[in-house]
Each structure stands twice: as structure tokens, then as C-alpha cells.
Records
---
Amino acid sequence: MKKLFDITFEILMFLSRATGFSYKEINIIVWFILIPLSWAFLIDKIYKFNYIKIISIIVISITLLFINDFTVFSNWLFDISADFLKGFDSVGSNYTASSVIICVFIPIAIYFLLIKKAYFFKHHKTEK
């Protein structure tokens, strides 16, 4: 788990250096904006409509418009997210393991299912 955590951290640090956003800002952009938005696009592809991605873009845009200071917001959201992950310590986990499970394994599993349904699952229509 530690190795995967470190790799993820290094990728986020690279993105931070490449974009000028802080580590916490990149973290929020990736896990709270880009990943959910990509899921919305995949869900729309599966169900052949555009509602979820449009609603997602609108909600994200409106939310970002009302954030006075993205750095302050990102620091706050990152910190409460970290506290959430640390909460799993009480059930025998730790921050590193919880981060990898919740922020890496679960999203990968969701991507696997959504991509499989969006691109590889053939929808059979009932003929009348």
C-alpha cells in the first residue's frame, strides 16, 4: 500500500509542479472534479444521454463561481478528507491504506465497471 500511495503522491506532485497548483489543490481537482466528471461522461455514454454530464458541469461551475479563494477551499476540503481517511484508524486501518483503498482502488473499480459497460457491453434490445 505504501508504494502505491507514494506513486500516487509523486504523480500529484508532478501535476502540482506542472500546473502551479498546490498539492492540495491538485488533489481536490483530481478527486472532486475530474474523476466525478469523467464518471458522468461514462454514465451518459452508457445510457446514451447527456443529462448527467451537463448537470455535473453546471454544478461544478456554479460551485467554483461561489468559491472566493480556491486555495483556502482546497486546503479545507483536503483537510476534512484527510480526517475522514484517518477515521478508519479506529477500525484497524491507517491513513495510507485508507487513502489507497478509497482514493485509488475504489475509483479504479468504478472506472473498470463504467468503461466495460460504456465500451464493451453490448446492449441487447428486445425485438417486438
---
Amino acid sequence: MNRIFLTVMLAAAVVPCLPPIAVHAQADAQRNAETLRNAEALRNAEALRNARTLHSKGYTITVPDDWQVIDEEKTIFTLRAPKDDESDTFGENIRVVRHSVGKSYSVAEVLRRQKSDTGRFKLVDEGTVQNARVPMVWMAITPKNPRDASDVLVKIDFITTTKTDIVVLTAMAQPDAWKSYLPRFKKIAESFMPIATGQP
């Protein structure tokens, strides 16, 4: 018998098989993960099915009914998601702020400048909001070296521009939750636009 083939056969013969309990546990874990993914997909799909449209300072946005609207003087909108359960200690949120710059910039140019100077933060991900009513890009950053346990949040900036302003929808989420919240954040960001170019 070929020596190499014999060696492979012997090696395969001594590979231990997973005991039945381990196999079942692995299958259960996979089913649970799939169930969680399906539930998350359903929540994201229905994110704006039951929603309300808000108007403030010349802009409009659509948010889920169960999100809290907070009145803050320096923002166009401040929105907070409901907590998932009693153990949830942080409410994911979005703050919309307008920065007057006196000239027009493309969203690509603003994103490029933002990425070139993230300071103590590192870029996690970026992209374009495909279905937005206005040109919009996004970038997610998180601290390179967190200062403490509270300094670990992921910051997602959704950026759009007007003739004289840069408008940023800043979403904040916990590091283990930001990816699951991202589709909901995007749905809300997609609905944002100046009232002048939409329906008041």
C-alpha cells in the first residue's frame, strides 16, 4: 500500500469523534443563533412600519413609534431607542446636528476629510446610504484605547450636506450591539431630508 495513503488513513483513524452530547449542543447553538438572526431581521424589516414623521428646524425624519424624542436646544432631533430588556443599561440613540460651513461640500469630500483625521478613534466601517432621500454616507468609529469601561461605544456618523451646511446624524451604540442596530439606524437616516425638498 502506498505509504502516504497509509499515513493519511492512520491519521484519520485516530481523529476523535465528537460525543453525541457535544454534537447536539453544537446543533442547538446553531439553531439559537439562526433564531436570533431571524428575529433581528424581522425587527429591522419592521423598524419603520409603525412609525411617525417628525418636523424640526427645516428638516423631517421618520422614527419608530417606540423611540423617545428628546428636546435638546442644540440638535435638530434627539432620538433614543427603547431598552431591549431590564438588563439593558444603555439606550441606543441618534442626535442630528447641523454645522454651518458657509459653502457646499460633497458628501464624499466630507467623508474623506473625516477619515483622514479621526484623532483617538479608529475607523470600523463605512459606506453609502443607498436609499436615502438626500446624498448620504456613513462611517463608524470607536476609541483606539478606551479610557474606561464607559468609553467603548461605537459612533456612527451619517453625513449629508446642503449648500451651506453639513448635517450629521450621529448614532451611538454599544460595541456588541452596533451591527444589529445599524439597519435600523440606516432606515431612520434614509428618511431624513430638508422640508424644502420634500413634503412638509
---
Amino acid sequence: MSSLENIIMISQRYPVDLPISAQDFADSGWKEAISGTPREGYEAMWQAFSTAARDAIEQGRHEHGKVLWLLADACSMKLSPSSPNEPFKPFAMIHDRRTVIPDDLTNADVLSFVKIVDAVDDDWLKARLSDLVWLKGQPRNQMFALKAIDAYRSIPLDMETWIEDGKECWERAIRLAQTLKGGAEDRLEQMEASIIAAFKAATRADGFLGFWLADLLKSNCLGRVHRAEVASKLETLAHGFDGEGERYKAREYFSAAAKWHKAIPDEVKAAEMTVAVAEGW
């Protein structure tokens, strides 16, 4: 049986009614569990917490084990920002079993997250716990949505992070801010500014990062006052890739530039970019 199957098949890893406190969290060794983990998104954190939880249970540290299992469960969920009603999906399903989803959390579990979230100084973990409290807490408390947004938007906008859950984290932060409307308008403006700044700094050495950041703006109706600047930068990068013989990247950037030019609107430049896409085959 694989380690993933083993995690899915375990139905009870600790006594369900075992109480845990903020002190149990502080003493659980959660920081040590992930300190040596290469940051490859939430999956790596899930595996690290799971290993630490099993070790704690085997050592008879049941409260610490429960804390670590709850953190593992929280990190095991796959973020799906495009689904506002179900933003967290199970990471995997095997036969009739699956990994954890928010509905598996008890009220006591959610209250445990409430107790510890302010003591968490890891942006990834703070974002996840705050988001789950916002989603499952009754009644809903906007403060936790704001905590989630602030933690998500602290995650770097770079190539390595983007492909390891960074994209989903930033998308979720934007969706949360849009959901709160006036309650997070300032944060939405700040996120837009951060994305624009990262986009401006992107070079050909960053591969598709510029393309992805432009798409993040466009798909969330952001960057409207920067349309001409974004279109021009995409076009410049496209020509650069074309000159280096990177035809696939060039086509993708030319195609994105066409959409941004059309949104200005500049139909002449949009048509020029469309022709460049065709010539890149």
C-alpha cells in the first residue's frame, strides 16, 4: 500500500474527542516539521506534517499528534479558486475513499484553528487556516477572510512559486477580496499594484511568468488602466522569444498581446499580433 493510500485509508488517527490547546500547538513542533521542507506548495507541507504526526502518536504525544494531523489535513486540500462555493477539493480519491475536504472538519477542529491562527508566522499555513475558518466558521467572520487575503498575497510572485500553488493562492486572494467588495477594496488595489510591478519586472529569463501574470490580471478584470503598457510589454517579450527561436513562447505572448491590444481598443495592433501568431507556426 502506498503512503497516499495509507493516509486515505486511516479512519481514526487520534481520539476524536481529545481536547487540544494553543499550548499543544506551540509545543507540537510544527515549525520544525516544515522547516526542512523544500517549498513545493501545500503537498510538501501535507507530507511533512503527516510524517511528524505519525511520529508524535508513536511517541505517545497524542495531543501534539492531533495538532499535526489537523495541520496535515488542512494542507492536504487542493485549492480550486474558480469554484467560489467549493474552493477546496480532495487532493486524491482512491476507489470509494478520498483525502480530506472542509466538510470533514468538526466545529471543534475549526475552533482549534481559530485559537492558533494568530500564532502562525508561516504565510502558507496562516493563509490556509484563515481561509478554512472563514469558510467553515459559524457565523462567518470577515476578519479571517482578510487574514487569508493578507497571507496569500505575501506569497512571492516568482516563477518557482507560481507553479507550486502560488498561482492558486493569488487567485484565491483576489476572489476573496472581490467577494468582500468594499470590505477589501484597498487590498484588491494593492494586489493589482503588486501584480503589475511583478509583470513589469518579468524578463524572458522568467519564461511564461509575464504571460501568466497578464492572464491573472485579465481573468480577474484587473489592470484596465495599464492595458497599453501590458500589451506593449507582452509584444516586446514575444518579439524577444521569436528572435531566440522560442516559437511556442512567442506565439503565446503574441496571442496574449493581441487580446490586450484589442481591449484598449487598438484593432490595428491586435490584428498585427494575430498575424504574428500565424507566422509563428
---
Amino acid sequence: MTNLPIHPEPPASPPNPSLVVLGRFQPFHRGHAQLIKAAEEWRKLNASEMPLVIVIGSSNRPESMQNPWSSEERIAMLNTWLEAEGIVDVSIVSVPDIEDPPNWVVHAEMYHGVAGVFFTSDIPSAELYENAGWPVVMSSLEQRDNFEGWRVRETARMMSTVDDEEAVRSVLSHSVPSVIVDHLISSNGLRRLAFLGEGGEPVG
């Protein structure tokens, strides 16, 4: 299992079956935006009675270049973007890592509910949920290589010591929605990247 703290604890009653979108959102970028928009469109056409649940993974990881933002900060990013897009009636849940992929879905179900539909563009995640008996909808993601989390984080780190906010917006807005760039600037969420001092490329 894991030596990481299990935080947060699972709710006493997990949600009803839902359309689940999973990500680390480190940070929330345009690839995530594409995925959630596609999931919401699919839900409206195919399962309008099923709620949309966005799952934030790695909620219990300590701060690092791979995990610069806490789950609370990532929830704030998601809420900022959802409000700007007018997407409502969405639940956001945080799920801690257990470092045990074969048992991940059973663990995550305690937080996001049992089998509804899993919506993803990530093949390894799709395989985990399919093996656990979930229906899976695969979504294609345009420019996937450009939206890999580690690339976005490295770009953000390069801009983290730049004081010209317009320059920061100009560079980061290619991969991060403008409202999230503004949110990161106003919340001082970029400066820390200059001091984390490590690389890494897990998908984010």
C-alpha cells in the first residue's frame, strides 16, 4: 500500500453512479478543459440523468514540482473555470493516492461512487476502469503532447520569476485557459515553482 496519509477520508455515503472524469489538474490546462467539455456534451446527449463528477487525484501528495498545488488549490482552479464556462451541477471530489494501481478503482469508488461511466482520453486509466467493470467512453484529445502536465508545469516554472504579468499571460495562455492564468497570478500560485528545484514528467 502506501505510507502517504489518506487525506481526505472517504465520505460516509459515496455519490450515486455518475459520469466520472479523472485528472491530477497540476495545473488545470486546456487539455483538461477539452476533456470536461466533451464529457458534459456526452452526458447531455447520452445520460442526462447522470451527474458529472470531476475527480482530483493525488490529493495527498506533498508539495513538489510534480505536485505544486494542493487539492484545495486545484478545486479553486476548477471552480474558477467551471463558473467562467457556465457549467453547473458538477461535483468535485479529491481522492488520495494509495500507490496500488490494481486496487485504485475500488479505492476511488469510495469517493466518487460505484460504476457509472468513466470518461477519459488516457488509455492506462481506461484500462483500470474497464478491468473493474466500468463502462468507459474514450475521448480523443487534440494536441495531447502539448497538454502533458509536465510540459505545462515546466513552462509555468520558466515564467514563475517573470514580473511582467502580460508576458506571463501571453506565454501560459497557449496551454492554460486565460481565467486560470489570471487565477494563478492573482493567488500568487506561480512563484513557488521557482523554488521547488526538480524536474519530472508524470502525466498531469
